[in-house]
Amino acid sequence: MYDPGHPSTGPELREALGRLLAEGHAFLATLTTDEFFRTQGEHWSPADHVRHLRKSSTPVAAALRLPRLLLRVRFGTHDGASRSYDAIKTDYLARLAAGGQAGRFAPAPEPAAADPYTRRNEILTRWSAATLSLTNAARTWDEAALDRGQLPHPLLGPLTIREMLAFTVYHTEHHLRRVAERATPR
User: Helix 116-138 and helix 10-28: axis angle, to 10°?
Assistant: First the structure.
């Protein structure tokens, strides 16, 4: 569970995101609504992790739908090859170990929902929509464009579009794995 392999091409990256989304939904469905909203010790609740994944994927999806010229003017272009999935993962983990945090992409505190079941479904639906929006937007980028376009990342600096997709795959895996590791054993 939560092993996307080493995706590299656009189709591999999109497929990995789709698989992680399906695996995440399958695992999260095993949690009670109370477990979904309860913090895991000192850590975020599963709901908070999912809200964070949606919050961090939404701007990437929006950026990938912008005109390419606007992205070039705003963020420049990249010359050369993109780093691999494993290199992005290693860099991200090093930044986390050095104290990196979610910052503005952290989920905002929420009061207890009046209808937790409905709120849970809303959170999961929004995450699904954000992930599908991202994978659909990524379909419009051919392999060469994935290495030329770039976007800023708050911890990793400028990333090519391919690197940003690789980050998003690993980031999704990372958070889903944390939720599963911290879940109450049944």
Answer: 170
User: How far is the C-alpha of 168 from the C-alpha of 152, rounded, in Å?
Assistant: 13
Of 55, 3, 25, 36, which is closest to residue 174 (Cα–Cα)?
3
Q: DSSP code of 111?
A: P
| Residue 180, CA distances (Å) to 32, 121, 131, 173, 186 in order | 13, 19, 20, 11, 12
**Per-residue pLDDT reduced to its tens digit, 121-156:** 999 999 999 999 999 999 999 999 999 999 999 999
β-strand partners of 159: 151
In this structure, which amino acid lies at residue 145? Answer: A
Is 186 a residue whose pLDDT tops 70? no
| CA separation for the pair 40, 60 (Å, rounded) | 28
CATH placement of domain 10-182 = 1.20.120.450
pTM above 0.85, yes or no: yes
